[in-house]
Amino acid sequence: MSALTRFLGDSPFRVILKLLVVSFLVGLVMNAFGWSPMDVLYGIQKFFRDLWNLGFHAIDRFLGYILLGAAIVVPAFILLRIASYRK
Known about the structure:
Elements: H1 3-8, H2 12-33, H3 37-54, H4 56-85
Transmembrane segments: 12-33, 62-83
Pfam family, one: DUF6460
Keywords: Membrane, Transmembrane, Transmembrane helix
């Protein structure tokens, strides 16, 4: 097996053929939705900008969800461990 085939995971011809088929299908879907590559890039940029603008509020909400879940999960875990310890 050559280094190129090992790197690509298949023969170069088959990889090119697979890439062409997938590129065609993705292009078809993008055209159906009216998307362009720049729309995708702008969407990614907007996602990170919105994430940055959320700032610590997002972290606060995330930690709040963890604490809310832990209020039920940790006591249940301890009770289950105690119940299984007696056996």
